[in-house]
Amino acid sequence: MKARAYVNFALIKYWGKKNEKLRLPFQASLSFTIDKLFTDTKVTVNKKLIKDKITINGISDERLNKRVIQHLNLIRSKYNIKDYVEVTSVNNVPTSAGLASSASSFAALTLAATKAFNLNLSKEELSRLSRYASGSASRSIFGNFAIWDIGDDKTSIARPIDINWPEFKIIVLMIDKSKKPASSTDAMKESVENKLLYDEWVKQSKIDLDKMLIALNNKDIKSVGEIAEKNANHMHDLIESTGITYKTKESLKAIDKIHELRTKGVLAYYTMDAGPNIKIITIDSEVNKIVDYFNEYETIVCSKGKDAHIVLN
Ligand code: DP6
Q1: 104, 7 Cβ separation under 8 angstroms
Q2: What is the pLDDT of residue 99?
Q3: What percentage of the chain reaches a pLDDT higher than 70?
Q4: Which one, out of 35, 55, 256, 292, has a CA that is 20 to 30 A from the CA of 299?
Q5: Could you tell me the pTM of the whole model?
Q6: Which of 129, 156, 184 to mutate to test the pocket of ligand 1 (most atoms within 8 A of CB)?
Q7: Ligand 1 centroid to residue 101 C-alpha, Å
Q8: How far apart are CA 211 and CA 261, in angstroms?
């Protein structure tokens, strides 16, 4: 069974867990699932296997495989399944470059594996299962805009929000495809330990989320961009207080250029995740101006992606 799930970028970030094992977040997050970056994962039950056989992007990597097996074990134990599987996963995303590849990967794995085991789960259950593997994966079950709520094990799942805004775009600036210095899971844990700053983050992100929902409903790109940028900067300040930084010289240079663009009247705002790449938040009318201005970088112009789904062939 082959499934496809798309990458999502958070406009209001998830950063920090109140329960590590269940991956329950301290605050709700809001994301946009895009169309251009995705993961295709094929899962086939093979009764002859005595352990899972995993290939990710054409190779078998011990560390990546471990996380996949852990997730398969969780699904098997939850639904009392004994079979081992063959997993072949292909990312059209540079792995670990802060392009949220764990989100699309684990959402695709969850959908493909549960279908291969003949389980027909609801999107809510798929979102919950994906969350156990990687928090942000809970949101990649849904296309377009989605909110992942705080809640408990049962209620902390993503849900789609009904906003139809085809002009909304995210442009990925490929600054660096190399691996990031620290995993988001580790950096998150250290951030939570910085209690004073962390509490402030939780408080502010709730305010940011409420404002973001109003701005999205109004299709007000200026407010959406400003709120998202402020929220991302807050997260990165928190991360940098632990001694970890994901921003490189190139990221800072690109950020300066976005400020420059804005002084020229272009509606361009940025967000950044656990990696050096920059995502520019904008609308259709501005796309050509932005892409031209950043002609020294590879750019990927993204529209809304679909819900995770089964692909035939
Ligand atoms: C910066 O979902 O990768 O992209 O739950 O530990 O696997 P784990 O973390 P992960 O964190 C993503 C954090 C972020 C912001 C976001 O996507 O909300």
Answers
A1: yes
A2: 62
A3: 96
A4: 55
A5: 0.96
A6: 184
A7: 10
A8: 24
